[in-house]
User: Which sequence fits this backbone?
């Protein structure tokens, strides 16, 4: 039986589609095989987590912080200021406050609470607002079950939202003019951008945005200042603020941090400081001695490539969120080499728009949070 030209065309399209599907399956299998062979983790997007919609007509706002506690509950810092106005470009049209208008213009949405906690199945377990009215930029969970929020300073809460302690800061509002305080000031001067615990030593590491970034270490129990340093381990007193400094991938590295500094601490005693707008990560001892630095996606400009960081459970890899390229980079911690990435630019599931923070649970799954119009938290399951 002879086929018509139309039938031939339809059959050809079907054949090519089947070939494409087969090729995609082979490529996926090949990538999985390569991942198993090299030991580099691979991930798949989990569209079932968290369970949506949120209650009370809430919606996610900018996700500025993520933490996983000792029982693998995921704590989300939901920046409620985004509800009333876009915090980056001040565009009220990108908010979703229609249900709060008088009269309401749509069924959704109402202002969410700032702290949301989800279990491994995606159920919302707890929700509460921090005591201060300043939008936070960091959330940490200690082994004692307490939740720490970083904004204009660090505040310690119990898991139900009761304020327990506050880290001292200077009297001025966030980010006073450079030179308002000496660089060696022991209190928080700017705002908290990153932080991590060394619970064996009972120490809290934070990054203060003052003068584009300072690493400060406090006693977890007394909240007393212990030490601090700037880029390359320089003493705080030697930090210089240069208002015109910008990252140039072809030029020499900046002598001080450029901006948006986050931090993590490994179990073997190293401190990693990600200087986002310089596309670099600097490594220190816990005492502040500079060890080395390396770059990630070093051609990236504007907001930079090295944002939030999280360690894999075995501490072999660092996951780095990239707000500009909208991926999560996988960095081998022993070689400092970027060995892979996952995600893509886009608003569909598994994609990112302005990915901001990243966290891991005990199983090795990765959680991501987005700001601007991304406004969501996602989970990526590690392939085994």
Assistant:
């Amino acid at each position: 039986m002879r086929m018509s030209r139309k039938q031939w065309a339809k059959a050809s399209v079907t054949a090519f589609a089947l070939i494409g599907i087969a090729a995609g399956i082979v490529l996926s299998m090949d990538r999985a095989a390569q991942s198993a062979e090299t030991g580099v983790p691979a991930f798949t997007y989990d569209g079932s987590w968290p369970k949506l919609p949120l209650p009370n007509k809430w919606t996610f706002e900018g996700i500025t912080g993520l933490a996983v506690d000792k029982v693998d509950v995921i704590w989300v810092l939901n920046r409620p200021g985004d509800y009333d106005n876009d915090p980056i470009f001040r565009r009220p049209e990108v908010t979703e406050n229609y249900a709060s208008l008088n009269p309401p213009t749509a069924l959704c949405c109402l202002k969410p609470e700032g702290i949301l906690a989800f279990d491994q199945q995606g159920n919302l377990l707890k929700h509460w607002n921090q005591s201060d009215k300043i939008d936070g930029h960091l959330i940490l969970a200690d082994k004692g079950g307490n939740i720490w929020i970083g904004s204009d300073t660090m505040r310690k809460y119990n898991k139900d939202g009761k304020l327990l302690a506050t880290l001292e800061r200077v009297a001025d509002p966030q980010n006073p003019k450079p030179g308002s305080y000496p660089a060696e000031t022991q209190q928080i001067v700017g705002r908290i951008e990153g932080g991590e615990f060394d619970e064996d030593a009972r120490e809290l590491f934070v990054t203060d945005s003052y003068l584009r970034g300072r690493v400060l270490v406090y006693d977890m129990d007394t909240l007393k200042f212990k030490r601090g340093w700037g880029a390359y381990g320089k003493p705080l007193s030697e930090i210089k603020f240069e208002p015109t400094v910008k990252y140039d991938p072809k030029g020499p590295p900046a002598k001080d941090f450029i901006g948006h500094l986050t931090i993590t601490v490994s179990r073997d005693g190293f401190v990693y400081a990600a200087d986002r707008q310089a596309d670099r990560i600097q490594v220190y001892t816990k005492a502040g001695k500079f060890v080395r630095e390396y770059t990630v996606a070093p051609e990236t400009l504007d907001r930079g490539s090295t944002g939030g960081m999280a360690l894999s459970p075995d501490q072999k890899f660092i996951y780095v969120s990239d707000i500009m390229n909208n991926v999560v980079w996988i960095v081998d911690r022993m070689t400092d080499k970027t060995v892979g990435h996952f995600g893509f630019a886009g608003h569909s599931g598994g994609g990112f728009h302005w990915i901001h923070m990243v966290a891991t649970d005990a199983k090795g799954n990765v959680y991501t949070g987005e700001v601007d119009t991304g406004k969501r938290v996602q989970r990526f399951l590690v392939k085994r």
